[in-house]
Structure formats: C-alpha cells, structure tokens
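Q: Here's a chain of 112 amino acids. Please give me its 3D structure as tokens.
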Amino acid sequence: QVQLVESGGGLVQPGGSLRLSCVGSGFTFSRYVMSWYRQAPGLEREPVAAITSAGDSTNYASSVKGRFTISRDNAKNTVYLQMNSLKPEDTAVYYCFAVASWGQGTQVTVSS
C-alpha cells in the first residue's frame, strides 16, 4: 500500500528556513508527480508546490513562489520542500500527496 511519511517540521522564527522531507513507499516513486499541500487552522487544505516525475518541471502557489523550492531524489524515494523567508502566515500542517494518498502531515509553526 502507498505510504508517505513527512518530516522536518518545527518551530521557526519569521525569516527563518526549514526543509521538509517526504519518503514514499509502496509505489514506483519515480513515475509519479509529487505534491505538497498545507492546511492552516480553520482553513481548507491548499496546494503549495508540485514536481513532475523526472523533476524537470515545478509549480508553486503564488503565495510561496520565490521563497519555497520543491525538489526530489528518485534514488531515495524522497521529495523535499525547502522553505526560506518564512512568514507567520506559512504556519500550517504540511502534507505530501501522491497516488491519491496523503501523508500524516508535519506541523510548521512560524512565530517569534
């Protein structure tokens, strides 16, 4: 069965950085688009970034463009989300999505 396991969340000050990781198993990782979503309290889950199977094309929400970078290592079955210049409004649970499946999420809190 498909499993997606996120890690790397935490508490960071505004302007700081975090790198999230998501390890996939139970499917042929290198054949699938991988995506990151986030959900803040009281709000709907929203897409953040996506990357093609080969890693040759990416897409970002306008709110994170220029600050976040999605990448992948197909040899490690891992997709990353590098988050720089973090803002309080980036506070959310971040989820990995692929093959119609969700990870359990990792909490990111941006606060001074």
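Q: Can you summarize the key feature?
A: The mean pLDDT is 97.
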